[in-house]
């Protein structure tokens, strides 16, 4: 076990619950650390159900293409915890990460603190200590009581599409979940809101206007669409004719447009050339990512394709299914799904968008995850939903089974935890 893993294991034992949404524990800890959350560069705070990471990836690419230094806070990580914290453009180094975690651990002095709370406190320390022009800050869950919601004066707030997810913590309707996401709105900040269902839109609009914020809504105040393979964006400032996003899928045109709108509305120093270069350079691992090399890829024949996506809810699955249909128009290929899921998701809901598309579903128990669905259960539920499905012992045996389908298009999906395991086994972790 590495030193980082040993520290993180100790921190995980400080609170019996993995998730306990509250600000009552984090604020005293931050005060004892000198309130690093009050000494951050301008913050862009991002909440939503899906597309948070992609939207942040575009914003980071736009700003870095414009010569700016950017901090980023994302979760969860795929392979190494370091991926969660990017300091002025680079992933935090292990020695510096360990020192920060151990300092927070010492100051906390064994008080109950969730893993996300204490590691976020360490991240805020690192962000405050390192000079940068902006911080792109992703919520962990929800918004109102999310640990990141201690930032009192963000430059701007982005709400990506809201859908049903984490209902046990956020509520069982779109309106309730949107209300939780709206908790990151702050008086004096600007807000940009992605495409929403009607009930979510109404809640977000009311919450913003109560604080004197007039938000920009995607599809109303700004538009982005795919035209002749390019991204055409328009708002009240004018029209931009831009190259397509580097990230694959029709939904990425929406995500990129949301990031462009935020950059323009928040007054970020990005020119049209900066947008164009950023769109070409944006990277976000395990989101319709092709695996073209590595030992796992080599288990498939030369005519096959191997794709990886961390989709874990119905909304994300629908976007990926659309991307796969577009791929099939360009090159028809039999689709094989390799799927593992956490037990907070139901297989039928995630599989539904792939009805009539998938030749077979090969199911896995996610390695090392005690809260993962068993492969047998996923296969059983897939068969009930009308799919041909088989349980597999490992991703290796699943890929060998998929190799029996000539020229297959294979998608490994269902969880970011599974995606991280695949990247590690394939020797292609994020940078």
From TrEMBL:
Q: Which InterPro entries match?
A: Folylpolyglutamate_synth (IPR001645), Folylpolyglutamate_synth_CS (IPR018109), Mur-like_cat_sf (IPR036565), Mur_ligase_C (IPR004101), Mur_ligase_C_dom_sf (IPR036615), Mur_ligase_cen (IPR013221)
The job of this chain, per UniProt, is described as: Functions in two distinct reactions of the de novo folate biosynthetic pathway. Catalyzes the addition of a glutamate residue to dihydropteroate (7,8-dihydropteroate or H2Pte) to form dihydrofolate (7,8-dihydrofolate monoglutamate or H2Pte-Glu). Also catalyzes successive additions of L-glutamate to tetrahydrofolate or 10-formyltetrahydrofolate or 5,10-methylenetetrahydrofolate, leading to folylpolyglutamate derivatives.
Instruction: Give the matching NCBIfam families.
Output: folC
User: Which pathway does the record list?
Assistant: Cofactor biosynthesis; tetrahydrofolylpolyglutamate biosynthesis; Cofactor biosynthesis; tetrahydrofolate biosynthesis; 7,8-dihydrofolate from 2-amino-4-hydroxy-6-hydroxymethyl-7,8-dihydropteridine diphosphate and 4-aminobenzoate: step 2/2
Q: Which SUPFAM superfamilies match?
A: MurD-like peptide ligases, catalytic domain (SSF53623), MurD-like peptide ligases, peptide-binding domain (SSF53244)
Upper taxonomic lineage: Bacteria, Pseudomonadati, Pseudomonadota, Alphaproteobacteria, Hyphomicrobiales
Q: Describe the location of the Mur ligase C-terminal domain by residue ranges.
A: 306-415
Identify the enzyme class: ligase
Key words of the record: ATP-binding, Folate biosynthesis, Ligase, Magnesium, Metal-binding, Nucleotide-binding
**Which family does the UniProt entry place this protein in?**
Belongs to the folylpolyglutamate synthase family.
Q: Source organism's superkingdom?
A: Bacteria
- Catalysed reactions listed for this entry: 10-formyltetrahydrofolyl-(gamma-L-Glu)(n) + L-glutamate + ATP = 10-formyltetrahydrofolyl-(gamma-L-Glu)(n+1) + ADP + phosphate + H(+); (6R)-5,10-methylenetetrahydrofolyl-(gamma-L-Glu)(n) + L-glutamate + ATP = (6R)-5,10-methylenetetrahydrofolyl-(gamma-L-Glu)(n+1) + ADP + phosphate + H(+); (6S)-5,6,7,8-tetrahydrofolyl-(gamma-L-Glu)(n) + L-glutamate + ATP = (6S)-5,6,7,8-tetrahydrofolyl-(gamma-L-Glu)(n+1) + ADP + phosphate + H(+); 7,8-dihydropteroate + L-glutamate + ATP = 7,8-dihydrofolate + ADP + phosphate + H(+)
- Name used for this protein in its record: Dihydrofolate synthase/folylpolyglutamate synthase
What EC number(s) has UniProt assigned to this enzyme? 6.3.2.12, 6.3.2.17
Mur ligase central domain residues: 46-263
Tell me one Pfam family matched here: Mur_ligase_C
């Amino acid at each position: 076990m590495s030193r980082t893993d040993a520290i993180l294991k100790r921190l995980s034992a400080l609170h019996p619950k993995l998730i306990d949404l509250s600000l009552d524990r984090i604020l005293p800890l931050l005060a004892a650390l000198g309130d690093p959350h009050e000494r951050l560069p301008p913050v862009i705070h991002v909440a939503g159900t899906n597309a948070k990471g992609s939207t942040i990836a575009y914003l980071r690419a736009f700003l870095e293409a414009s010569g700016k230094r950017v901090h980023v806070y994302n979760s969860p990580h795929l392979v190494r915890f370091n991926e969660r914290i990017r300091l002025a453009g680079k992933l935090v180094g292990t020695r510096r990460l360990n020192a920060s975690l151990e300092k927070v651990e010492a100051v906390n002095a064994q008080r109950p603190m969730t893993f996300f709370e204490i590691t976020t406190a360490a991240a805020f320390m690192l962000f405050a200590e390192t000079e940068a022009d902006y911080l792109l800050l992703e919520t962990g869950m929800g918004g109102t009581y999310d640990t990141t919601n201690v930032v009192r004066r963000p430059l701007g707030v982005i709400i990506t599409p809201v859908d049903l997810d984490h209902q046990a913590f956020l509520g069982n309707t779109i309106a309730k979940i949107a209300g939780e996401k709206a908790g990151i709105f702050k008086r004096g900040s600007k807000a940009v809101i992605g495409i929403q269902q009607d009930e979510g839109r109404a809640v977000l609009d009311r919450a913003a206007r109560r604080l004197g914020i007039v938000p920009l809504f995607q599809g109303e105040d700004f538009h982005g669409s795919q035209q002749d393979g390019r991204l055409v964006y328009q708002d009240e400032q004018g029209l931009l004719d831009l190259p397509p996003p580097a990230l694959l899928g029709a939904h990425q045109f929406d995500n990129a447009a949301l990031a462009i709108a935020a950059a323009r509305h928040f007054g970020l120093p990005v020119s049209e050339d900066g947008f164009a270069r950023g769109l070409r350079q944006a990277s976000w691992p395990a989101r319709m990512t092709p695996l073209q090399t590595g030992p796992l890829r080599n288990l498939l024949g030369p005519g096959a394709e191997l794709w990886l996506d961390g989709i874990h809810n119905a909304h994300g699955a629908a976007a990926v299914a659309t991307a796969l249909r577009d791929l099939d128009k360009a090159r028809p290929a039999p689709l094989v799904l390799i799927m593992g899921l956490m037990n907070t998701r139901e297989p039928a809901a995630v599989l539904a968008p792939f009805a009539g598309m998938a030749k077979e579903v090969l199911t896995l128990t996610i390695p090392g995850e005690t809260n993962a669905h068993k492969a047998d259960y996923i296969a059983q539920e897939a068969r009930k939903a009308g799919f041909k499905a088989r349980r597999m012992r490992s991703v290796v045996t699943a890929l060998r089974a998929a190799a029996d389908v000539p020229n297959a298009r294979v998608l490994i999906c269902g969880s970011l935890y599974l995606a991280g395991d695949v990247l590690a086994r394939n020797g292609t972790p994020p940078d």
